[in-house]
Design brief:
This protein is an alpha/beta fold and 312 residues long. Helix content is 41%, strand content 10%. Helix 7 links the parallel strand 6 and strand 7. Bound molecules: thiamine diphosphate and magnesium ion (MG). Belongs to the BCKDHA family.
Amino acid sequence: MYRYMLLARRTDERSWILNRQGKAAFVISCQGQEAAQVGAAYNLRPGHDYVYPYYRDHGIVMTLGMTPRDELLALLGRREDPNSGGRQMPGHFSSRELNIVTASAPIGVQYPQAAGTALAFKMRGEDGVVLACGGEASTSGGDWHEAMNLAGIHDLPVVFMIENNVYAISVPEKFQVAGSIAGRAEGYGFPGVAVDGNDVLAVYEAAREAVARARRGEGPTLIEARTYRMTAHSSDDDDRRYREREEIEAWRLKDPITRFEKYLLEHGVLDEFQRDELDEEVKAEVKEASAYAENAPFADPDEGFAGVYAEV
Ligand SMILES: Cc1ncc(C[n+]2csc(CCOP(=O)(O)OP(=O)(O)O)c2C)c(N)n1
Ligand SMILES: [Mg+2]
């Protein structure tokens, strides 16, 4: 889990460098949310369960099997990008092999699709589980409520995980969320749990229970992982205009990666030598991926129509 968190963070940091060098047009970051993402995805069976991640879920897709190379090929819009052949925005994940269903840009549309996939699992008598994720603002739209209701009526094998990172671009949680997100599950007739989203083991535990419950055919669970977006919304906004530096610094002290690293060191699971070795290994993998993606060919402009029209 620690390795996947680190891999997601270093790939993300590399993405910002590529953006500031003028090579990557747009970055949307997972920094700060790695514990929620890796802790949840670690419970899934890649290629068996279905996943509807949202644009920040680099930690989820990397836990399922995407590599820094896949990520950076997508970021730079190259033909070899396994998500879309360089045709989608970065963060719009897709993999037939890993059962990651292609993402649409409107917030929240993944939830009814996820409930539908869970209904298909149930109708076929299969034991697959669906994980669907989004930010706290995605719970303000109708799609989320419709999906929650459908999942509740039919006891569908779906886990909704809301990564509550306090902001929706510039809009703070207090102007976005009425009451409690986790508490809303009660109205749809299934459990809702709030967890510390910066504690990877807490999220792992909550998701383990939710996934097991879904696999047993007992129905959905809502997990609200409380976390914080450490970067601006994307590479295109200036967060100094809507939040205080002190607030970010306070959350940086709760960085999920340093926190888990400390835990592993204290419990003797990892020693400093192993930690440094792992760090070097991850950095080398990301560096190689970056060079590879930069040198990879772009898609042909004609390929932009593939899968869109039957005939160009
Ligand atoms: C229906 C819709 N409205 C607005 C947008 C523009 N938009 C993109 S991301 C975003 C913020 C979403 O915030 P949240 O769900 O909290 O996720 P976060 O980005 O904080 O992780 C908005 C408003 C959109 N993509 N779709
Ligand atoms: Mg948010």
